[in-house]
Write the structure tokens for this entry.
Amino acid sequence: MSSDRRDFIKKVSLLSSVAITLPSIGMEAQAAPRFNMSGYRAPKLDKVRIAFVGLGNRGTGAVDRYTYIEGVEIVALCDRHEDRVTKHQNFVTNKGFEKPKGFSGDNGWQAMLQEVEIDLLYICTPWDLHTVMAIEGMKAGAHVACEVPIALTVKDCWEVVKVSEATKKHCMMLENCCYDFFEMLTLKMAREGVLGDIIHAEGAYIHDLLDLNFSKTYYDDFWRLKENIRLNGNLYPTHGIGPVAQCMNINRGDVMSSLVAMQTDDFHMADTARELAAKDATFQQFVGKKFRGNMNTTLIRTEKGKTIMIQHDVTSPRPYSRIHLLSGTKGFAEKYPTQGISLKSYKSGHSFLPEDKVEELREKYTPELVKFIGEQAKKVGGHGGMDFMMDWRLVDCLRNGLPLDQDVYDAAAWSAIVPLSAESVGKNCKTVTFPDFTKGAWRSNTPVDLTLNGGGNTKIRPKVDKDAKQLNV
């Protein structure tokens, strides 16, 4: 992280240090929620005025996707770099829409919140800015949709929760993997009891990003590489935990209660830094730094005695995997390395079902959302369509006053794995207590409705520019 950005965060005084103060967690858990955002129905918005901050890799794809959703007006764009703002303004106008207001510089997003009336702030900036922007966005009267994670410390997770409750503004973390077609199939199967009681689940983010982390252009000012120096734990848990947490009704019938993490040493990043620095002085700044290890394995136990394993490895040369594994009392499902389903009722406990049986399950248990928008989502793109499905669903819920599929408690709990895993690793794999961000409301919170009841009326513009590309990393 640059010194300018760190000074800015200190000045705003909203983000805390990396240190975790466990006593404060216990104090927070004793108080009842100010307002329970789980299942909250915000007032309907006929038209969603949206502003984007962060126009890099993720922001570019998001702006593109939102031009296909009716009932949305892109009113403002912001990025540190002025040329990116101009580029995206031209992109929007070339699509036939009014030119959004543009803001740039480190403080441009603050000016945007003061000068433009918005209903939804869409945050695609580096991780360390997520919390302060989300909080200020809600205080300015906007709902917030934020790239993962929502925060990097437990204290900031609590702050986001408290502001959402106080303002009654949604704060949704943009965990797109919850909208993957197979993940949604298994979610519907879990809700219908096909797999029985889910007693163990596994998720992961195993993705070789070694070259991209050391790229001079992909992550602005090497921000993601620097986080691999600053944080020594599971840096990116939400792709793995999000879908399985929904299948296990976490925060809506059960809650994560404790965590322990173990991590390998670093076997790639430090060596890569030395090799690159020998040819290019730009990388000298990373020589001698202590990087987080290759593989982090985090184990979580729930209040009801179930377990979850979440892994993170972005440097080892191995195939991409999110694992997505569900083990229930009546069946089993996994996505990687082999996508398959096994059900006790089919007497297939030792093998996967044949494809014709799996197809029968797809026909019966594919959620209404996927059947309604899945093919259009694939055409628009974004990780095979799950990005667009997430965006369309968010807008449809806001326009119809429906609860969001992911609430602020999910954002906080899934993000808290980052600092808690770092704490456990730093204490020689000691078990740490997981805070209950619902403050006990998980006992009565109900699972999110997977149907389109009350919604499904947001139209989609046809995709005409076939050459437009969505990010698939």
In short: Confidence is low (pLDDT under 50) at residues 8-30, 467-473. The first helix runs from residue 3 to 12.
